[in-house]
Design a protein that fits this description.
By secondary structure, this protein is an alpha/beta fold. 38% of the residues lie in helices and 14% in strands. A seven-stranded mixed sheet has the order 2-8-7-6-5-3-4, with helices on both faces. α3 runs parallel beside α9. The longest helix has 23 residues. The protein starts with 19 loop residues before the first helix and ends with a helix. The mean pLDDT is 95.
Length: 368
């Protein structure tokens, strides 16, 4: 009998563990730590959403894996109202946060040894991890043409991007869809920051008719309520797209018990039905973004892309990524080094503007 190989051994070191010593340095600052490293919401969950959660708390039975009909209807309405996307009836599926979907989608789609999955060169590390969990081969590439004849089973697209905030235009997305359709490749589009365009930027879904015409075949879009509605703690997300793929995922998730709790489904419906709280939250982020961007640029940093999402993609002329992390940690500010997201990020840091107004103001003062 062969020796067991732990699944964890297939995976890289959890990147955030490498920040621990810098975090200790930053925490020693006389006026406390300003943590701009992780994009976690800090503002309150809107009261109406908490009420919806509490109102559904008496849920003794098993929830529906597919989501309640009311939730599915709200997802479909939101996609149409906010993003001009009309999905086939039922072609939506609530998920336990979007990171879970990123990590398990290749496995749930049956990919494995012999399959190749492409993700962006600068990317959220979980794309790579999810491919490794499935046993497939991850390839980091921004130019699909450079892949040559190598057989590809799935392509990840992330617009607006984490970490860079870059937005892919309609023409770019259309080329990705055309390339994939010519080869029968699945395109999974992580659109968690789709509502958070800045300075007139309007990100577009892979499911929009301008991108994919009148068919969602082999297309999936992932959405999250973590940032839009401060529901990171609720693990509230969903996917939508090709009815055949959604049905396939539903069947596997039913077998494996991957179900969003009923009270969370109720809170998701309340969140999707109400745009006002999301606009209010977006304005909070807009003010924090403006203040931090001005502070970094005033201190000699360069900010690139960053036209959407919750991060500034910043570089300093005299520092590499880890040098920049150390430089800011000595001032009590912690950020994420760009190489967490790929070798191409070695000259940058990712700065989250999800801290409180008070902490953002403190960071700006220290940079000055």
């Amino acid at each position: 009998m062969g020796e067991r190989r732990p699944l964890a051994d297939r995976l890289p070191t959890f990147p955030w563990d490498r920040l621990a010593p810098y975090k200790r340095t930053a925490a020693a600052h006389a006026d406390g730590l300003v943590d701009l490293s992780v994009g976690t919401p800090v503002d309150p969950v809107p009261e109406t959403l908490r009420q919806a959660l509490a109102g559904a708390a008496d849920s003794p039975g098993y929830p529906q894996t597919w989501g309640t009909p009311e939730l599915r209807s709200s997802i479909e309405d939101w996609l149409s109202r906010r993003h001009g996307v009309a999905v086939a009836e039922g072609a939506v599926l609530p998920t336990i946060g979007s990171k879970e979907t990123v990590a398990w989608l290749p496995t749930l789609l049956g990919l494995g040894e012999g399959d190749t999955v492409v993700h962006p060169e600068l990317a959220y590390p979980t794309y790579d991890v999810g491919v490794r969990l499935s046993g497939a081969t991850p390839v980091a590439a921004d130019g699909l043409a450079s892949l040559g004849p190598a057989p590809v089973s799935m392509v990840w697209v992330n617009s607006p991007s984490n970490p860079t905030g870059r937005v892919l235009g309609v023409d770019h997305l259309r080329k990705v869809v055309r390339w994939a359709r010519e080869r029968g490749v699945i395109v999974a589009s992580d659109e968690c920051y789709l509502d958070l365009g800045w300075d007139g930027t309007e990100p577009v879904s892979i499911l929009h008719p301008d991108v994919c015409g009148d068919s969602h075949e082999n297309l999936l879009a992932l959405h999250s309520l973590s940032k839009r509605s401060n529901l990171a703690g609720y693990r509230a997300a969903f996917l939508a797209g090709d009815p055949a793929l959604v049905k396939e995922l539903l069947e596997v998730r039913k077998h494996s018990g991957m179900i969003v709790p009923a009270p969370v489904q109720a809170a998701m419906k309340a969140a999707l039905d109400d745009d006002a709280h999301a606009e209010e939250q977006k304005e909070r982020y807009r003010a924090r973004r403006t203040r931090l961007r001005s502070a970094f640029e005033g201190a000699g940093w360069k900010v690139e892309h960053s036209e959407a999402g919750l991060y500034l993609w910043a570089s300093h002329p005299d520092l590499d990524a880890w040098g920049a992390v150390e430089h800011l940690a000595e001032r009590g500010v912690i950020v994420a080094p760009g190489d967490f997201y790929g070798r191409a990020g070695a000259g940058h840091v990712r700065v989250a503007f999800t801290a409180t107004d008070e902490r953002v103001a403190e960071a700006a003062a220290r940079l000055a």
